[in-house]
Design a protein that fits this description.
Helices cover about 30% and strands about 15% of the residues. The chain is an alpha/beta fold. The chain has a single domain, classed as Alpha/Beta hydrolase fold, catalytic domain (Rossmann fold). It is globular, with a radius of gyration of 17 Å. GO terms for molecular function: hydrolase activity.
């Protein structure tokens, strides 16, 4: 296997995957945060900076497939590894074990509503560091599933110009209040709203229509707050949908992508790349 995203020839209906080939690993400490948290960060590529935060259970081959696609698209990608084993393949047991540990983690506060989550401070520090080392006016941040809402929290930082929230799932939607919670504190949301009005910040959100983990109610909350600054891509996963998605489809940019022309998730991934280019090109405002 090479270090570039691909679809397996023996399983053409599978998602693009890749491995750790060519990725440079180094610890990064958010020294200006209260906890001075350290996580390994994997980097690769040249061009504007993009922080890609893995979904549970971690940096799987599918997450690395997306990462290498971003590298091939002209970005310098940084992947923090706050959980899981980089390169390890997805399995039910692996995912369940990771979820169990994260559910009780004070760094992520998986069930708290209206909450500031400490990992957001780490992510903002990483975004500032990457912005100082890469060309362009700022950086992008992509969060997915468990980490989806952290792209919104990171957008408090002025250097974050292209936040992408893919199927944001925190807080876990147990009850109506959690299902509609935006996944950040009121202060963080207000700061992001101010940026949309004062500097033209735009955000991109993605989900499947029938996804019970990343709810429509949460997106409605975000749309009410962010208005037209929040672009939403909702892929149809209802019964009989043209994309052939199951009603349980969740991972818009990884597990559900197919390298087939016209595939809805492939088109969504292409829009993410376009969004990053629009916001992060050196000529961007």
């Amino acid at each position: 296997m090479t270090g570039s995203a691909r679809t397996s020839a023996s399983a053409p209906a599978s998602a693009p995957v890749s491995d750790l080939t060519g990725w440079r690993r180094a610890p990064f400490t958010a020294a200006d945060t209260a906890a001075k948290t350290t996580h390994d960060v994997y980097e690769k590529g040249e061009g504007p900076g993009v922080v890609l935060v893995p979904e549970v259970p971690g940096m799987t081959p599918e997450v690395l497939g997306l990462a290498d696609h971003l590298v091939d698209s002209g970005f310098h990608v940084a992947i923090p590894s706050p959980f899981g084993t980089p390169g390890r393949a997805m399995s039910a047991g692996y995912a369940a074990g990771t979820f169990a540990r994260l559910c009780v983690s004070a760094e992520f506060r998986a069930f708290a509503t209206g909450a500031h989550r400490p990992f957001a401070d780490y992510l903002k520090a990483l975004a500032r560091d990457l912005a100082a080392r890469t060309p362009g006016p700022g950086v992008g941040v992509i969060g997915m599933c468990f980490t989806g809402g952290f792209a919104l929290a990171a957008a408090v930082e002025d250097v974050v110009l292209a936040p992408v929230l893919s199927q944001p799932a925190l807080p876990f939607p147990v009850g109506g209040r959690r299902a509609a919670d935006p996944g950040v504190s009121p202060q963080e949301l207000a700061a992001v709203v101010d940026r949309t009005k004062e500097s033209g910040l735009c955000l991109l959100g993605l989900r499947f229509s029938e996804d019970k983990g990343s709810t429509r109610a949460r997106f409605q909350t975000l749309r009410r707050s962010l208005g037209d600054a929040f672009e939403v891509i909702e892929l149809d996963s209802a019964k009989g949908n043209e994309g052939g998605f199951k009603s349980t489809a969740h991972s818009v940019l990884t597990a559900e992508v197919r390298d087939v022309p016209g595939h809805p998730a492939l088109a969504a991934r292409a829009r993410v790349v376009e969004f990053l280019r629009e916001r992060l090109s050196p000529a961007a405002p």
